[in-house]
From TrEMBL:
The gene is hpaR. It comes from Chromobacterium rhizoryzae. This is Homoprotocatechuate degradation operon regulator HpaR. One of its GO terms (biological process) is negative regulation of DNA-templated transcription. InterPro entries: HpaR/FarR, HTH_MarR-typ, MarR/SlyA-like, WH-like_DNA-bd_sf, WH_DNA-bd_sf. Residues 9-141 form the HTH marR-type domain. GO terms for molecular function: DNA binding; DNA-binding transcription factor activity.
Length: 145
């Protein structure tokens, strides 16, 4: 093996993708049963924690590209999950607010989501999960190249 090449199984992007899929296999069935995509759930969780938010902030915090978020929000508005309106102080800012239906749905799903975390912790341990989250925080804060 060429020492300048990393074997495929050590490639960070691929490993992170596979780890994400392993984790999402716990959550995806819950979201599917409630008619939500993973991206919609990320939006609803943010709105549950923060109330109304600017669309740009949602895109950044949820890890969704702004053009993709536009389509997601259109579908969420159609499904009575969010309201969208322009900020009075700056018409360029799009504000997103959860509907009462979305708030009720989120409250039904959060305990199920917490159960998923508990199931993961039975295999991975709470301490390892906390360590992993701390390492991911560091990884997210790498300086830009």
């Amino acid at each position: 093996m060429d020492p300048t090449q990393r074997p495929y199984q050590y490639q960070l992007p691929q490993r992170l993708l596979r780890a994400r899929e392993a984790v999402m296999s716990y959550f995806r069935p819950v979201l599917t049963r409630h008619g939500l995509s993973e991206q919609q759930w990320r939006v609803l969780r943010l709105l549950a924690e923060r109330g109304e938010m600017e669309a740009g902030d949602i895109a950044q915090r949820a890890g969704i590209h702004p053009p993709s978020l536009s389509g997601i929000l259109t579908r969420m508005e159609r499904d009575d999950l969010v309201y969208r309106h322009r900020a009075r102080s700056d018409n360029r800012r799009l504000i997103v607010t959860p509907t009462p239906h979305a708030k009720a749905l989120t409250q039904r799903i959060i305990p199920l989501s917490n159960d998923c975390y508990r199931r993961i912790e039975t295999h991975f341990s709470p301490a390892k999960l906390q360590t992993l989250l701390a390492l991911l925080d560091e990884l997210e804060n790498l300086p830009a190249p």
